[in-house]
Amino acid sequence: MSEHNSVGIVSPQTAHFDAPLALACGKTLNEFDLVYETYGELNAEKTNAILICHALSGHHHAAGYHSESETKPGWWDTCIGPGKPIDTNVYFVVSLNNLGGCHGSTGPTSINPETGKLWGPDFPQVRVADWVNSQAALADRLGIDIWAAVIGGSLGGMQAMQWSVQYPERLKYCLIIASAMDLSAQNIAFNEIARQAIQSDPNFCAGHYREQDTNPSQGLALARMVGHVTYLSDDAMANKFGRDIRSGSIEHNIDQEVEFQVESYLRYQGSQFSTAFDANTYILMTRALDYFDIAADFNGDPVKAFATTKAQFLVVSFSTDWRFSPRRSREITNALIAANRPVSYAEIEAAEGHDAFLMPIPRYLDVLKAYLGRIAEDLL
Amino acid sequence: MSEHNSVGIVSPQTAHFDAPLALACGKTLNEFDLVYETYGELNAEKTNAILICHALSGHHHAAGYHSESETKPGWWDTCIGPGKPIDTNVYFVVSLNNLGGCHGSTGPTSINPETGKLWGPDFPQVRVADWVNSQAALADRLGIDIWAAVIGGSLGGMQAMQWSVQYPERLKYCLIIASAMDLSAQNIAFNEIARQAIQSDPNFCAGHYREQDTNPSQGLALARMVGHVTYLSDDAMANKFGRDIRSGSIEHNIDQEVEFQVESYLRYQGSQFSTAFDANTYILMTRALDYFDIAADFNGDPVKAFATTKAQFLVVSFSTDWRFSPRRSREITNALIAANRPVSYAEIEAAEGHDAFLMPIPRYLDVLKAYLGRIAEDLL
C-alpha cells in the first residue's frame, strides 16, 4: 500500500436486513445483506455523509487498502481520501456493494434462505430503484437521514439521479458523472452482445455453472472485452497501442501468428475479469442499466421527474466518452434547467473515453474538489 | 425480382487459374478459382471496364438477380445498373468473390488439391496485395489491360487503394469509399473480439468444424452482432429501435423476460449470418483488414506510397461512420494532395454510420453519378 493521502487500511462491514424489500419486478427479498465500507467520521449533526454508488463492475471497496500487502487501492482512491476531492477529513463517506453484486452483498452467488441453495440465475432482477431503496435502508441503519451528497459515475450516476427523484428530502446534492437518463439502443445492443457471449458459453449451464463446478470464463471474458473497447476512446486506444505488433513485423511474417499489442492486452483483461466476476451478476447489472429510465413513471417526461426533486445538481461528462456522451449529460442538464432545478454542468476534455470518470484528470478533480468545497460551506 | 433499372438475371462464372500465385505471407497457391459476375458490355477498345471490390462479408453478386424468384438483388444494386451511378449502359462492370472467400472462389471451404482435403483453417492468410494480384490475373483473363476505374467501400476501398500503388499503369480512376489507410487500434480490437467469439465456440474445433460436421454458429453470430452494432451509428440505432420493447412494458414485467426490439433484431441478424457465412473466412477477412497498411512498403509514409500512383482519385466518407470515420478519409485525401495526385473528396451527411456506403443516399449517389459521368467523358 501507499500511505500518501490514503484513507489507509479499511475493513468492509456487513449489514443484515430482516425487513422484506419489495422489488420493482414484483418479487420480494425477505432478507438481505449489504457489504459496505466507510471512510472519515460522521459528525455529531450527521450532516456530512456522502454515498458513493458504483458502476457495472464496481463494489464497496472504493478507497484505501484491505491489508498492508495490497498493492492496488480501492477503485476511486484518486478521489476519496484526506485532502482529496471527496475529502475524508471533512466528509463521512459510505460505499457499498449493490444488491445482486458478487462482492459480499446478497446476490446470485448467495444462498437463497428459502431453498438452502445458491440463488444463481433465480436471483430477482433488481433495478436501480431497488438499489436506492436498499441504500436508504443502509442509511437508516447508519443513522443518516439526509445525505450531504449522493455521487456516482455511469450506472452509479443513474442511482444518484434516481435518489433525487425517489427520496427528494434525503439528499442535499446530487453528482451525476458520465451517465444518462436512459440507455441508447446502441448501449443496449452492446449489453446484449455481452449477455449473449456469456449465455452462449456452454459452461454457463443456464446460470447454474457453480452447481456444475464450472464457470463461463470464455463468455465472461468476451463480455468484458466488448465493454473494455467501448469504454475507451478511439484516440485512447491509438495512444496506448497504435498498430504495434507483439513481435516481428507483418511484412516478414510467414505464418498467421502476427499479433497486435491491443489483442493480447484485451485477451489478458478479459481473462483476468472472468476469474474475478460472477456471470449472473454481470447479466443482472447490464439488465439494470438497460431498464433504467428516469422518466418512466412520469409519462416519459424527464422534466416532470426532475420537478419533484429538491437537491442541487452537478452533471459531468467527458469529451471522448461515446457510450455516455456529453450529449446525454447535456440532456440531463437541460431537463433540470427546464424543471427549474439548480444545476452546474462541466464537460471535461479527456482522451480516455468513458473510463475517464475513474481517472485522475486534473480539471475533473478540480471541478469535484470545488463543488464538494461548496457543499461543505453550505452544510457544515 | 424487380425489373426497374436492374441488370436483370445474371449468372456467376468461374475462372480457373493454373499459374502459381505467390502470396505476401511467403506461401504459394499453385492453382485457384475466382467466381465473378459481369454487367454491361466490354467495348471494342476495352476502355470501359470497372472493377468492384467487396468488403468483409461481401461477394461477387453485386447487382441483379440469380433467378426470377429471387427477391433480393445483389449487394450494390442501388449503384449498379442501367441509368444508375455505375451505369451498365456505359460500363462493363466486373465483380468477384475474393480469394479466401466462401462464395465460390478458392478459400477455406475449398478442397486443397495437394491433400484432397478441405483447406479449412490451413488456407493461407491472404492479404489485400494478394487479392489485387489475383484480380489482375482475372483482368488478364478478361482481356482488360487497364481498368477505367477500381471501386470499393471499406475493405473494398483498401483494395482500390492498393491497386493504385501496386499496378499504377492499370487503372485510370480509383474510388475509395468509407475506408482508411490502415485500421485503428479500436478497429483491430473489434475484429479481435469477433475472432475470439468464433474461436472460443467449442464447435469451432480449431477451424476443422466441417470435418466434424458442425459449425461455430454461436460464435459467428456473436461476431456478426459486434460488427453490426459498430457499422451502425448511435443515431441510426436510435431511429430504428429507440427503447422499444417487444411486448408489455418494463414497469409491469414481473419476470426477467423484458426484451428490447434491438435485442431480437441483433439476435436474428447474427443467427441468419451464422448459417450463411464461413467462420474461417470471417477470421481470414478480418485479419486481412488488420494487416492492411498502404504505407508499409514505404517506410510508413503514405505520401511516398501515393507518389508512385498514376490514377485520379475520389475519396468518399460518411458523417456518422465511426469505424471508418471522415477523419480517416481526410487522411487519405491529404496524403494524396501532398503526393500531388488529383483527388476529389466528398463527405456525405448520413445517419447510417459505416453501413451508409451501401445505402441509396441521394447526395452519395449524385456524387458517384457525376464522377463516373466525368470518367466516361474522359475515357469513352
Commentary on this structure:
- The structure is a homodimer of 380-residue chains.
- Chain A has helices spanning 128-142, 155-166, 185-199, 217-231, 234-240, 261-276, 279-291, 302-307, 326-338, 362-379, and strands spanning 13-17, 21-22, 28-29, 32-39, 49-53, 80-81, 86-87, 92-96, 111-112, 117-118, 147-153, 171-177, 312-318, 343-348.
- By secondary structure, the first copy, chain A, is of the alpha/beta class.
- Chain A folds into two domains: 3-182 and 292-378, Alpha/Beta hydrolase fold, catalytic domain (Rossmann fold); 187-286, Rna Polymerase Sigma Factor, Chain: A (Orthogonal Bundle), CATH 1.10.1740.
- Helices cover 34% and strands 16% of the residues of chain A.
- Chain A is built from ten helices and 14 strands.
- The model of chain A has no long low-confidence stretch (mean pLDDT 95).
- Chains A and B meet through helix 3, helix 4, helix 5, helix 6 and helix 7 of A and helix 3, helix 4, helix 5, helix 6 and helix 7 of B.
List keywords for this structure.
homodimer, 380 residues, alpha/beta, Rossmann fold, Rna Polymerase Sigma Factor, Chain: A, eight-stranded mixed β-sheet, 10 helices, globular, AB_hydrolase_fold (chains A, B), homoserine O-acetyltransferase activity (chains A, B), transferase (chains A, B)
